[in-house]
Amino acid sequence: MQLGLVGLGKMGFNMRERLRRAGHDVVGYDRAAEVRDVASLEELVDQLEAPRLVWVMVPAGDPTRETVERLGELLDEGDLVIEGGNSRFSDDQRNAEILAERGVRYVDCGVSGGVWGLEEGYGLMAGGAAEDVERAMPVFDALRPEGPREEGFAHAGGVGAGHYAKMVHNGIEYGLMQAYAEGFELLAAAPQVENVPEVLRAWTRGTVVRSWLLDLMVQALERDPQLENLRGYVEDSGEGRWTIEEAINNSVPAPVMSAALFARFASRQDDSPAMRAVAALRQQFGGHAVHH
Amino acid sequence: MQLGLVGLGKMGFNMRERLRRAGHDVVGYDRAAEVRDVASLEELVDQLEAPRLVWVMVPAGDPTRETVERLGELLDEGDLVIEGGNSRFSDDQRNAEILAERGVRYVDCGVSGGVWGLEEGYGLMAGGAAEDVERAMPVFDALRPEGPREEGFAHAGGVGAGHYAKMVHNGIEYGLMQAYAEGFELLAAAPQVENVPEVLRAWTRGTVVRSWLLDLMVQALERDPQLENLRGYVEDSGEGRWTIEEAINNSVPAPVMSAALFARFASRQDDSPAMRAVAALRQQFGGHAVHH
Amino acid sequence: MQLGLVGLGKMGFNMRERLRRAGHDVVGYDRAAEVRDVASLEELVDQLEAPRLVWVMVPAGDPTRETVERLGELLDEGDLVIEGGNSRFSDDQRNAEILAERGVRYVDCGVSGGVWGLEEGYGLMAGGAAEDVERAMPVFDALRPEGPREEGFAHAGGVGAGHYAKMVHNGIEYGLMQAYAEGFELLAAAPQVENVPEVLRAWTRGTVVRSWLLDLMVQALERDPQLENLRGYVEDSGEGRWTIEEAINNSVPAPVMSAALFARFASRQDDSPAMRAVAALRQQFGGHAVHH
Amino acid sequence: MQLGLVGLGKMGFNMRERLRRAGHDVVGYDRAAEVRDVASLEELVDQLEAPRLVWVMVPAGDPTRETVERLGELLDEGDLVIEGGNSRFSDDQRNAEILAERGVRYVDCGVSGGVWGLEEGYGLMAGGAAEDVERAMPVFDALRPEGPREEGFAHAGGVGAGHYAKMVHNGIEYGLMQAYAEGFELLAAAPQVENVPEVLRAWTRGTVVRSWLLDLMVQALERDPQLENLRGYVEDSGEGRWTIEEAINNSVPAPVMSAALFARFASRQDDSPAMRAVAALRQQFGGHAVHH
Fold this sequence. Notes:
4 copies of one chain form a homotetramer. The first copy, chain A, contains 13 helices and 7 strands. Chain A has helices at 10-21, 41-47, 62-74, 89-100, 117-120, 130-135, 137-143, 161-189, 196-202, 212-223, 239-249, 255-267, 273-286; strands spanning 2-6, 25-29, 53-56, 80-83, 105-112, 123-127, 153-157. In chain A, helix 3 links the parallel strand 3 (53-56) and strand 4. At the A-B interface, strand 6, strand 7, helix 8, helix 9 and helix 10 of A face strand 6, strand 7, helix 8, helix 9 and helix 10 of B.
């Protein structure tokens, strides 16, 4: 089928390619002239036959909101917008309202898979009305991995449910990564184990901890067995924070997911103010030496 | 090749079967008469041709130590014992010494895979001298999953390294399980998501969090979509505790693995003494109501 | 000086008494007829001479907002409202704006001390313009403990800073309580220590952990040495949640304060959905028994 | 009364002074010639009249064990050794056995108070037989703070209970310090609060979080309001580690005490291997930039 795709960055660029391989007719727009098919959103909308389907894949926050607002002005009743970026679920309701004023439908979709999605397909979680989700199914089917639809796609609930499910997915992801990371550090620190990369590789089949993340870890260690060529400085992109806030809103204990988030915060500090306070206290009561 | 297998419980029974399917000649002994091939350790040793290989798969702690001691009395110089149970790595050095007095060789081997190992193979991590590990390779090859040897087997280091690697594997496993569990609880608690089992199923291909544990979670939810037919009471079998103790010994921060362990402890308490203390304090300073 | 006090609950009632003991002329209003001095907010405002000072001490959220709005209608330019309840700091800016439309000034004030404040005084943290804070100083001086002003009162910053400081105070409080509680549980669990209440009492002078909370703990154990007469069920009143959300907003690692919050959430669960998920996983991969 | 004191370091030196001020006759020995009263343990034992009381205050581990062994050789039946250092509780049983071979009695005593103990007294927790503890009471009374005995001294149980109680005391101390430290960091990070040291000072009377540690924090901030003159590098001296190990041994959840310990470990890492692993994973799956 025909669709518009707004945003051709790291994710959107690959998604256009995967959609085209599946036979879809994709009209792509981006601010970057070298990757886009059309020079403006207006042109994109003009090239699509009504009822249109436009997939939005731009950075979360203001860029997404502005794109939705602009599409609200350009699209017609019965058109459908799918927001596939990393929006916070709480933005979706307002997005839907903005578009509803013009009779434009809205579906949010959490997309997982990163740079591997082009070849392996993307895990998809959609939120919105059943008929809207159904209408976009050929697009979802092209993007998701081979195999049974339900193993790579879910209709999670109403508007916002797709991004909510993706947010929790990322919260879990933080926890999984931190678990492997702590295990790696312990193996590397313990004198008992001589071949850390080989041990992790031996876990990739047959063990309880085998996973795609473990496979990636093995690949990373293959190139750099002690991970010496990078620093332990880890960004976070929002979903982990939102997950903890939602855990708090729902009174759900989240010790592991929050520990993983806080470890990232700490990784970005040259010197911890909290630990300066602890050092100062120890000096006060015990005369313990401090480091300057 | 020919080998003895001591311990035919949940793990050992299946391992004998997998070894036999691979063409090995296994003489199995267990205290339970209905599963064993021979009636005593003496008989087991008698039936094996020297140099013998005996795999021990009995409960960790005293049963393993007693088996090793008894084998030390029965075996001859040049024989090889492989300890494949859930021993603490710190037991291995002593086991090796006991056997070395009689010239018997020792390899420890961490085994992962649970009840699925019979069909899918077991992840193996061995510790010991290179020549001893090499000698047992046909056995390791039969037990490990299909595919490249290094993806299901590692020689982790000297005596004890196999169990050490398996211990860390289990510490990671605790963290992974808790991460999925927290995410599951949040999805179930949040009103936004309507189809929790479907969301988890949609993660099994294409997403960053796909893993074997996730597949198992999906299977569990298939039978019992809200996990209503069991209680949130979780045992632990030692490795998680040892992992945290080793993290402490090596000054390795382990917030996620420890949070997962403590969540298990808490799951087994009907009423938390610590939280009684917090409730008592709140009553003292704020006149806050307490529950009786 | 003369002031109005809106809200005569557990906190406000005692504060009126402490203010009167200090010689202030307090006109108190509450919805509950049996404690109030005047029958309506209108009457309260009428009885005060301009420029008026009105202290608001009603539940956070809607009750506080409605009281502020109503006071905005009743008060005159140059009057001053002090919001001393448990409002979230983010409410203060809006409160100040509502009142500013009528030329009414606004100060927020975090108040700590609980039921002991009547006799021992309240710790106070104020936010607002310097001249407004200065004007209310006789009231602050009456409410705060004896001793140097700076040991019981701080002007923390602009509007909202008082409640922000109080929020962090409560986040710390959560952490302190949980630390004592974990220590108590460990002492009670360990066979080595026979006299747990006596050990805690022996910490009240001379040790590094001595504190007012410890004194309260000792008092609680005096009445109920094993805390058998209450349940480990602990509410939370919002500030702990907000503290973690602010830690996240400011990328501040907060492992201790968050662990204390999550322990409260867990204390209120009869059965943990997360731990049901862990139990289900263990059953799936290891055939481990589950509890029903 | 007369007693010997072995070890005149930071703690022992001050304790000798406090004991002398109370009228006790203290014979002090240390390896450092400039502080000691006698030149050898032999001389110390010679100068004491039987039945002797010798307080040991040397570093935990080998120095303490060696001192106990040497005293076992020098002392006579009926003499009493008090081990007041930072020994692990599990060392006490063996110490007692070594001395019991010669009929020498043994009491262990946890001592809290740091450099302030000279003036304010030391919190004391003793373990041993009732008659031995009773015999040393004049010494305990001199060392503990003024006031009721039970507020600065406890007989916690049998041999080892004193050090056990002190260990838990320190575990709590870790948690308390970390709670204040996290609150300090959040206050310092938040733009809303302008006067962080003043806010902490205002908590020292009247609030729920008032404590001796808070007083020390205020003093530290007085000299260095942003704690700029030290680094966030924090050592640990063993008790925190042992506390977590005991929590694990007793299946006691200890999320706060362990988080405080792990924060110290992390504070000493220039670059976290675990966070390098997380960064490597993010690069693998998402093409996220890493820092070099």
